[in-house]
Amino acid sequence: AEVQVDPFETVALQPPKAPEQAAAVVENVKVVGNQIKGTLYFPTGDASTSPLLLEKVIPSEVQANKPFGYSIKVTNVAKLKLEGIEIQETVPGTFKIKDVTEGTPDGKPNSVTYLIGALNPGEQKIVSLQGTATQSGALGMCLSAKYNTSLCMATTVVSPALKLAAVGSTEAMKCDTLSYKLTVTNTGSGQARNVKVDSVLPDGLVTADGKAAVAFDAGTLNAGDARDFAFTVKANKTGKYEIKANAKADEGLASESQSIATVVREPVLTIVKTGPEKAFIGQPIAYEIVVTNKGDGIAKSVVVYDSMPKGTTVQAISEPGKADNTGKIRWDLGEIAAGASKKVAVVITADQAGELKTAAVTSAECAETQTAIASTTLTGVPAILMQMRDGPDPVKVGDQTTYTVEITNQGTVVGTNIKLACTLEDPMDFVGAKGDTKEKVDGKTITFAPIGSLAPKAKATFSITVKANKGGDVRFKATLTSDQLGRPVEQTEATQFFGN
């Protein structure tokens, strides 16, 4: 039967003094009441040098062929953990074990092994058994033990891992600075040592100092640590660029960033200015200016300038153009998309003959300046006006009257070689003349020396005085010629002479 009370409590645990083979010796065996109690410090028999204490309690007397119970207690008295503990009990052939709480027959005659397993310092385990003696006489049983000890140490197993991420510009203009950032992270455990990050730039991209690659030293990264590295580059041509970077560290650690696609574009402006090849002085001259973006990027902050030379006057400007007091015109056109055009116009007048050249210039972000020149040949319009009057009228025979001839250049070109000739009818006698040039009298004809040049809006005046010698309806005739007139201009002035 199972032991009801702790049978080991009253046993004095005294080790033997000099055991020679402790596994085969049972020491400190005592009879206490109807029980026999024994103890053994295994394997030396000395408590100070033995890691195991074996204790066994059996009845002092049992009946043949009647079941009885007994117990074995195993205690770890060492200062370290013991593993693989086995207790082996040898019994005579007249003893048959009926039941055991722990343990198995080990296949040997008259032997049973109790598997205790591992015990921590001070820990104990009790094995309860039942058996039957098949005949009278002494029933001798012996205990022995096995165990293992181990030296255990733990080292930290780490798995550092690199992860490299890249972010940056995805679209830019050729004139822009392209910005990128690389972030290397230790996503594993332990340290990543001697971390290096580099990127070989694709053809067409260079750093500010002209290099085609960038490199950074991240040093040592603890688990979870990250380092950021920023860099800028410039594009020397348009196109699509793939930016990649690599990270490496000791022990073969490596990571490659995802690719960043950057598209670099450029606005390319052209300007065309058109106007008449020929025009007249003083008449409106219209010019049209067309700006076209032939590039693949948006042209921003587009401005067109047009400067008017001296001698010209701005008459009209298309929106949103504005002119300053120097005659310089400015159109702020904003943005022009790739492939698109914008058109402006200006109307001017000019007061000088010759070749008139005007230049329109473009300006925009990230675009080269462009210039368009328009050339117009200006000519004047000849228009010589001759006006004549007399006074007094009517005139009494014997009295005098004066004819005044005014020649005005109403055209836009200088009048040259202007000649005036006056003819008197018979009732008139020449008295005198004066004017801008010297006169010459030949009978009834008065001719004035030619006017070499008469500027536009300029005037020349001549006067001829005559005497009435007979009454009647009289005519004074003036004839005008010049290099600009295709044929003579003739004009008469009627005067009434009266009296004898």
List the helices and strands and how they pair.
Blueprint: E1 27-32, E2 35-42, E3 52-59, E4 67-76, E5 82-90, E6 95-100, E7 104-105, E8 111-119, E9 124-133, E10 142-148, E11 162-168, E12 171-173, E13 177-186, E14 192-200, E15 205-207, E16 213-221, E17 226-235, E18 239-243, E19 246-249, E20 253-256, E21 260-265, E22 269-274, E23 278-280, E24 285-293, E25 299-307, E26 312-317, E27 322-323, E28 328-336, E29 341-350, E30 354-365, E31 371-379, E32 384-391, E33 395-396, E34 400-409, E35 415-424, E36 428-435, E37 439-442, E38 445-448, E39 451-454, E40 459-468, E41 472-481, E42 489-498
Total of helices? 0
Instruction: Tell the overall outline.
Output: rod-shaped
Helix/strand class: mainly beta
**Percent of residues in helices:** under 10%
Mean pLDDT across all residues, rounded? 89
What Rg, in angstroms, do the CA atoms define? 66 Å
What would you say this structure looks like, in words?
With 500 residues, the chain is mainly β. 0% of the residues lie in helices and 60% in strands. It has no helices and 42 strands. The strands form nine sheets. Strands 33, 35, 37, 38, 39, 41 and 42 form a seven-stranded mixed beta sheet that branches. The chain is rod-shaped and about 210 Å long. The protein starts with 26 loop residues before the first strand and ends with a strand. Residues 1-5 and 10-26 have low confidence and may be disordered.
